[in-house]
Amino acid sequence: MQPLLDKLKSVFKPRPVKLIGDRLYAACVTQARLPIFYIDYGIDDAIGARFELLTFHVGLVVTRLKSLPADDPRTEQARDTAQYLFDAFLLALDSTLREQGVGDLAVPKRMKKLGLVIYTRMKRWDDLWRDAAGLGAEADYAARTIFAGSDYSGETDGEGTQDAISAAVLERAQAFAIYAQNAYDAFRVDDALAGRISWPAPAALEIAEDSAETIMTSGDA
Questions:
Q1: Fewest CB atoms within 10 A around its CB: which of 66, 110, 189, 190?
Q2: C-alpha 122: how far from its chain's center?
Q3: Is 134 left (phi over 0), alpha (psi -120 to 50) or beta?
């Protein structure tokens, strides 16, 4: 009887890579909840902006893990870890929607829409980094997504809705772009595969209150 119980325990015991994915998700949540983002950077402390900020951090880890070349011996483990991290994120979103009172029949539809938003964000940030688009392009995208927030419904992708961005918002977004680039450069695959992420510390900001001045930017996001 005992050998059978041992086998059952091994079957239902979480895979180490899943535990790593859960640990990485927790690290992303902790980083995205740092008060400095909401106090110094002025990101709206509301569910839509928090969703955007968490999506950024999860997306950075996922895309970095999936960027390894096929001939790298860590590639399979990295892709599995990225998938478990992404799954942990989606599971948390599903739970949040249900806690908000979204009905069982509506949750899959909302999750599908949110999934599209998440994919769009991840791909766009990955493209910006791969193309070395520069801090200006990264700041513009951050201003139109993270700093603009979203309604968390997935009804729209939340991009390109502003023709003008205030000077103060763009200044904060530029500071965030520096943080984003530092996080990208500091990422270490081996650390992530062990369930560790060494996030850079966001720089403290001292920026004046929003002024009426606006900086016109292109509508492309």
A1: 190
A2: 7
A3: left
Q: How confident is the model at residue 149 (pLDDT cuts 50, 70, 90)?
A: confident
What tens digit of pLDDT does each residue of 120-148 get? 999 999 999 999 999 999 999 999 999 99
Nearest Cα neighbor of 21 from 91, 81, 94, 63 is: 81
pTM value is 0.84
CA dist 113 and 133 (Å) reads 27
Mean pLDDT of the chain: 86
Structure tokens at 18: 């899943």
Under 8 Å between Cβ of 187 and 67? no
Q: What is the largest CA-CA distance in the chain?
A: 75
In whole angstroms, what is the distance from residue 90 CA to residue 86 CA? 6
Q: Distances from the Cα of 187 to the Cαs of 6, 57, 64, 68, in angstroms?
A: 38, 11, 8, 13
CB-count burial class (<10 Å; 0-12, 13-18, 19+) for 85: buried
What is the token pair recorded at 26? 């927790």
